[in-house]
Structure formats: C-alpha cells, structure tokens
Amino acid sequence: MSKAITGKVYLVGAGPGDPGLITVKGLDLIAQADCIIYDYLANEALLSHARPNAEKIYVGKQGGRHSMSQEEINRLLVEKGRYLKVVRLKGGDPFVFGRGGEEAEVLKEAGIPFEVVPGVTSAVAAPAYAGIPLSHRDFTASIAFVTGHEREDRQDSKVNWKALAELKGTLAFFMGVKNLPYIVDRLIHYGAPKDTPVAVIRWGTTPRQKSVTGTLGDIVERVKEAGITPPAIIVVGSVVTLRDRLNWFETRPLFGKRIIITRTRTQASELRRELEALGADCIEFPTIEIIDPPSWDAVDEACKNLESYDWVIFTSVNGVDRFFDRLLYHGLDGRALGKCRIAAIGPATARRLQNYFIRADVIPDGYRAEELIKALPEEQIKRAKVLIPRALVARDLLPETLKDMGAHVDVVPVYQTVRASGERARETAEMLKEGSIDFITFTSSSTVTNFVSIMEPWGGVSLLRDVKVASIGPITTETAHSLGIKVTITAREYTIRGLVEAITEFFTARV
Question: Do 8-120 and 258-287+420-508 come out as alike in CATH topology?
C-alpha cells in the first residue's frame, strides 16, 4: 500500500529578472519551501530567502543546453511533491509561455496537490523598463503575446501571421531573437509596413538590460550589429516610439556598471541595494565572515556589571548588534545601559543603536577613532570606567589614548572576522582578468587583506592592476596601499552611503 501524499507543489512566477518584482506570496512560499526547483531565468538572488536547509535544484536551460529535460522535470516534481512543500520557481509567469500548464497537468494526473502563483511576465516588464508602454490610448487599443520560438520550416504553425500583421496594436514576442529574421519576414509578407517601429530588449529589468530599436525594415541588422542574444523580448508597434521620452531605467547613473562587493554575505545587502537602485550590476564576493569571539567570558562579565561603567563606546555596526544580542541572551535590554553615556564612531553606528532605542550622546564629525577621541569630553573621561565592545582584532589607538587620558578601559570582543571560503574565486578572477569589472569595493581593511589572500592562487594583487578600486575610508585605503593596491576613490564620508556617493560622482563627472 503506497504512502499517503503529504506534499504540495507551488508553481511560482519568479518575475522577469529584477528580484524585487516577485509577488509577496511567491516570496513567502520560497521562505517556507522544503525544496526549490528553479529555472535559468529565475534570479538566484531569490534563493537567499530560502531556509538554510532547503533543497535547491537547478533545472534550467541556457542557449539550448538543457540541465534537465521537461520530462525529467515533470518526474522530479511528482517525486518531490509527494512528501515535500515544493516551490517550482519559473521565470516570468508560469502560465505565459512557461510550460506551467504542462507541469500542472502532470501533477494533477499524479494526484499531487498544487497551486499557481502568477508572476510579472517579461512581456510586460521588459518593455516597461525600456520606457515602452504596451498600451497607450493615443497609439493602440490591443496587445498580442506571441511565441517567437516556432521553427521557420514548421508546416503546422499555430501563429496566425496574417491576423498579427493586420492588427493595429502592439505585438510582444517571447523567445524570438534567433527567429527574428523569420518573424520580420512573416509580418512584412502579410502586409505590415516596413517602417513599423520595433524594439528588442535583452535581459529586461536587470542591470544587464540592453535595448535596440529600429523598424521592421532594419531591426535584423541592428540587432546583429548590437550582438543581442537570448533571452530577449521583441516589441512591434507604434508604442516603441515612446521610448525616447519614457526611458527611465537605462538612464540611471550607474546603469550597467559591474561592481564587486567584498562584504560579508549578510552585510552586502545594504550596499547592493543602494548600488542596484542606481543601476549597477552587483557581484557578491564575500571575503570575510563574522563569527563569535573565542570566548564570551569578558562580555558576560561586562553585561553583569554594566551599572559600574560611565561610558560605553561602539566602534561599528557589528559591535552594536553583537553586544545587544549578548545582552538579550542574559535577559537584559537597553535599560541596562541607563546609567551609561553612549558614544558611536559614526552616523551608521548611531543609527543602528536607535534600533535598540538607544540614542548616542557623542557622535564625532569624522568617522574614525581620532575624531571620536576629540569629540569625547576630556573632563568626563578622566577616571571614568569605559567599556568598548568591538572586534577581536582592531586598532588599539582608541583604548590606549583613553587610558593615557586617565580612563579605566575594558575592551571586550563581541565578534571576530575570519577569511571567507572564497567560493567562486576562479570565476571572479576571470572577470577581473577579462576587464568586465568596473569597480571593486572594500569596506574595511580585512576585506582588502582577505581578498588578496583568497585570490593568491589566481594572481592576488595583480588582478587589480587595471581595475578601479573604491575604499570606504582612509584606514582601508592605507591597508590597500600597503599591499600594493592603487585606490581610485576614497569615500569622504566613511559609510556605505558615502561609498555609494563617491562611486556615483566618479561616473557622473565623466559624462
């Protein structure tokens, strides 16, 4: 007797490429899934929302190369769907030229429960990101979605080319780049004017987006000259002429710039979010990981005796988070700091303190230990008891100077940074060698030293000889220089926001 079916499959549309365009329900299901079966066109960034122990299976195809045939995918869905909560993550919308209907039929026949979660289809999103509305009352009143994947020699075509050529509306072709000459030939053959506007949009909604416009008469040659390859959407119709006025996505200051982020995977999101909002194509290559200190003894002792401290000084966002995590571990919260004055090394650290309902008493104008020392009231520091929760390895300037001023200082490590595993080091090295990287960012001295260490087998410092380097501040820049790395720009404000502003100014100044 077979076991009862306890699983369920969710056919989820991942959207057109921009991970921000997935639906709320789709994202929730990814976070709950036992198993995620995803395609080539489903942005891998969405997998970061999955549970750490969720099984992730890639079944996509690229350039005609199949990781798994459709029949194999169908069998996999049935196998996993019997007992697991499965998300079948498909680019765009699963029921719009995504073969989701076929997969749903297979699941129905096998008795596997399923749901369909629609996604934003690329036929709508890619033109929108290219500044082309599919409908506009001054131009068109109809839209047709068409597969462009039919073979030229097919005798039983399901496409009514005559009707499409006569349609006074917008045509959106999926998967049609390879067959573009045939599509153009059929439309012109059945009467579409050669001066009909056409746009071809590759990797729509992503920083890799590239758009080419023309007419039925010249689009084939223009696409060939531009080197456009799949995946791409073809838009035919007068609405294409609106692109010159409505193009918003490709005009952003960092559009298409490829930037490597070397922060920890968990910390990269803020920098990535700000850079991508300006159009950058971000590549995460973590060089450090944040882990527990070798011992919590010193921190635990400080937590038990917080009332004895006059000052608590935070020198990083990580220090704030890790210290308060340990406070909560002991059943305490921000009220335990009620008698202490608080100092933060910069605005980012001060903002993070506010997450714990703590307002810093002292925030220096600068963002380094030297400026913090100047900002501290000397009379209040003399004979004061000071607690500094920080990294295991850090500059000693601050505690040593405070001791010279007469303070009693306890430095307690609440975290340590270690070298990351360096996965994808080979691929990252190849991108640096071939010159496809516009900038690499370093947000601390440890990101610099660890990058050089990780990359030593593939060239080390020499990989950055012809690459622009962005540093978050002078200490990081000094570390880079000591290793023989030329820094292109150093942020004036030593924060993530300051780093983003420096990179943006670099490119806009060259326009």
Answer: no
